[in-house]
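The records we work with from here on pair a chain with its fold. Taken together, the tokens spell out the fold as the letters spell out the chain. To see the layout at work, look at the sequence and tokens printed below.
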Amino acid sequence: HTKLHIERVDSRIRIRGPLDLHHFQQAKEILQQVHIVNGKETVIDLSEVTRFDTAGAFLLRNLYNATKQQ
């Protein structure tokens, strides 16, 4: 069973592992705690995402919207 890891490093949010329905609640809780840096461009790194479905797309869209509101 692959684990989900989400971390912020400077202006980059790195997501590793599955971003899918099975991990939706965990990802949602972690992403709510990720602080967006005001006035700085945020890069969302998906290069190590191993599984992605519409639930993951929903979370990603919410994260994108949060970066644009800052």
Q: What stands out?
A: The two ends are 35 Å apart (CA to CA). Strands lie at 5-9, 12-19, 43-52. The CA atoms of residues 33 and 69 lie 16 Å apart. Helices lie at 24-33, 54-68.
